[in-house]
Amino acid sequence: MEHGVCICVCISTSCHTCKSYKSARTQKQMRKSSSIRPLQTRPVSLTLKIVPFRLAHGTTTLGFIFQGGVIAAADTRASAGGLVACPAVHKITPIHSHLVVTSSGSGADCMLWERILIREIRLYQLRHGHRLSIRATAKLLSSMLHPFKGTEMCVALTLCGWDNGPKLIYVCSDGARLQGDVFSVGSGSPYAYGVLDRELRWSLSKGEAISLAREAVFRATHRDAYSGNNVDLFHITAQGWSQRKREDLKEEYYRDKEKKGKKKNDKLK
Amino acid sequence: MLFTCMFQHFGDPGKMKDYHYTGPVEHKFSPYAFNGGTVLAVAGEDFAIVASDTRLSEGYSIHSRDSPKCYKLTDTTVLGCSGFHGDCLTLTKIIDARLKMYKHSNNKTMTSGAIAAMLSTILYSRRFFPYYVYNIIGGLDEEGKGAVYSFDPVGSYQRDTYKAGGSASAMLQPLLDNQIGFKNMEGVEHVPLTKDKAVQLVKDVFISAAERDVYTGDALRICVITKEGINEETIPLRKD
């Protein structure tokens, strides 16, 4: 399942995601004309067939670990089909003092599952007197999402936190639960990975890591239509999470253009 | 509910299919219909405005010219919902019932923020057979400042300063971004929005929407929410 790409519930001819659905429809028409009605091989979700509107989708989020902790960054655009439903969404949500989660996929699903996760973590803390580890949180979330596997619920969360060291775990509603050093999720993730893979290493300083994350999100928003507007950045250390002020990428684009213009002029000289 | 062709909104010939052969057409019962209408909400320093047109349409017909889409929930909160009228009616019934239940068990009226959170869970409870409604809540928060909460059909919500929803939302939202948010303009002074200026802006914006969107028109219902209460006003729009 592609995350961050419009799971288009419309059946317009231009949407490539629906091509498989449309070809299934024509096959069904052809089968109807013959006398034998074969069983439907792939169940198509009921909601996808009925609803005439699109849900909020589309994103670039990333997280990576380095010697100074964990960095989580995301854009702030929520798109519903071709419309920007909201240009200032919070895609990174703090769960507790040492854990933030970046969300990607359907806006409503992510919002609700973050709320559920906050509630469950808090309840565990009250009942057992200590905080649940990041790995256990990921397992808990994954098992809560399991009953909805196969439905068109689309949730892809990256848990970025600190417990005895920086941790980064990716959990998604397909059932994946992966620990790693760098994750980028969403329709803009290929562009973000390209920028990250170039410079990322364990020994980055805090300033370098922040500027790398910013750069990755900026480049992804530039190339991906479904990502854009601002960049949110969180830094998690042993002391907890801290949020950098939300930055409008429009200014960054003009600064970058100016820099490139200057470089070109320098080359010509 | 009419037997609606599944391809209703995506360039099919509509009534013309009786006169032209368009190939095999699959008819299927759809539980949804699109009844049109636009809703808008603006939050100011100490006021909030919720406005909607009053046209109820379906396909090429107008069912009613006097069907406003603003629903008064409490003394400080108004809900605007557009989309499928059947789901709007049921949703407002459910919200009214929940408000009464809250009032009886907690002995106080629900605040705007609490109503927004409750609406989000009500909408998400129908995640796999959604309410086809675009909701916008406008009201005053606990501090008396204006608050606008906008929703998508499955319950994702956000607090905003202004939001347009419904059929003409894509036309109105950029205009609001420019006039209220001062976006995409260089060298302008950001003056705070007064109540009278906001009401005038809302009227102008709906007149523009009625010009360009077929599902918007007939009349405009504006609800202005201040700490004194809710003041309703109806202004005529184009009826064609």
TrEMBL record, chain A:
<comment type="function">
    <text>The proteasome is a multicatalytic proteinase complex which is characterized by its ability to cleave peptides with Arg, Phe, Tyr, Leu, and Glu adjacent to the leaving group at neutral or slightly basic pH. The proteasome has an ATP-dependent proteolytic activity. This subunit is involved in antigen processing to generate class I binding peptides.</text>
</comment>
<comment type="similarity">
    <text>Belongs to the peptidase T1B family.</text>
</comment>
<feature type="active site" description="Nucleophile">
    <location>
        <position position="59"/>
    </location>
</feature>
<dbReference type="InterPro" id="IPR023333">
    <property type="entry name" value="Proteasome_suB-type"/>
</dbReference>
<dbReference type="InterPro" id="IPR016050">
    <property type="entry name" value="Proteasome_bsu_CS"/>
</dbReference>
<dbReference type="InterPro" id="IPR029055">
    <property type="entry name" value="Ntn_hydrolases_N"/>
</dbReference>
<dbReference type="GO" id="GO:0005839">
    <property type="term" value="C:proteasome core complex"/>
</dbReference>
<dbReference type="GO" id="GO:0051603">
    <property type="term" value="P:proteolysis involved in protein catabolic process"/>
</dbReference>
<dbReference type="GO" id="GO:0004298">
    <property type="term" value="F:threonine-type endopeptidase activity"/>
</dbReference>
<dbReference type="InterPro" id="IPR001353">
    <property type="entry name" value="Proteasome_sua/b"/>
</dbReference>
<dbReference type="GO" id="GO:0005737">
    <property type="term" value="C:cytoplasm"/>
</dbReference>
<dbReference type="GO" id="GO:0005634">
    <property type="term" value="C:nucleus"/>
</dbReference>
<keyword id="KW-0378">Hydrolase</keyword>
<keyword id="KW-0963">Cytoplasm</keyword>
<keyword id="KW-0645">Protease</keyword>
<dbReference type="InterPro" id="IPR000243">
    <property type="entry name" value="Pept_T1A_subB"/>
</dbReference>
<comment type="function">
    <text>Component of the proteasome, a multicatalytic proteinase complex which is characterized by its ability to cleave peptides with Arg, Phe, Tyr, Leu, and Glu adjacent to the leaving group at neutral or slightly basic pH. The proteasome has an ATP-dependent proteolytic activity.</text>
</comment>
<keyword id="KW-0647">Proteasome</keyword>
<dbReference type="Pfam" id="PF00227">
    <property type="entry name" value="Proteasome"/>
</dbReference>
<comment type="subunit">
    <text>Component of the proteasome complex.</text>
</comment>
<protein>
    <recommendedName>
        <fullName>Proteasome subunit beta</fullName>
    </recommendedName>
</protein>
<keyword id="KW-0539">Nucleus</keyword>
UniProtKB/TrEMBL annotation, chain B:
<protein>
    <recommendedName>
        <fullName>Proteasome subunit beta</fullName>
    </recommendedName>
</protein>
<dbReference type="InterPro" id="IPR023333">
    <property type="entry name" value="Proteasome_suB-type"/>
</dbReference>
<dbReference type="GO" id="GO:0051603">
    <property type="term" value="P:proteolysis involved in protein catabolic process"/>
</dbReference>
<keyword id="KW-0647">Proteasome</keyword>
<dbReference type="GO" id="GO:0005839">
    <property type="term" value="C:proteasome core complex"/>
</dbReference>
<dbReference type="InterPro" id="IPR029055">
    <property type="entry name" value="Ntn_hydrolases_N"/>
</dbReference>
<keyword id="KW-0539">Nucleus</keyword>
<comment type="similarity">
    <text>Belongs to the peptidase T1B family.</text>
</comment>
<dbReference type="GO" id="GO:0005737">
    <property type="term" value="C:cytoplasm"/>
</dbReference>
<comment type="subunit">
    <text>Component of the proteasome complex.</text>
</comment>
<dbReference type="Pfam" id="PF00227">
    <property type="entry name" value="Proteasome"/>
</dbReference>
<dbReference type="InterPro" id="IPR001353">
    <property type="entry name" value="Proteasome_sua/b"/>
</dbReference>
<dbReference type="InterPro" id="IPR016050">
    <property type="entry name" value="Proteasome_bsu_CS"/>
</dbReference>
<keyword id="KW-0963">Cytoplasm</keyword>
<comment type="function">
    <text>Component of the proteasome, a multicatalytic proteinase complex which is characterized by its ability to cleave peptides with Arg, Phe, Tyr, Leu, and Glu adjacent to the leaving group at neutral or slightly basic pH. The proteasome has an ATP-dependent proteolytic activity.</text>
</comment>
<dbReference type="GO" id="GO:0005634">
    <property type="term" value="C:nucleus"/>
</dbReference>
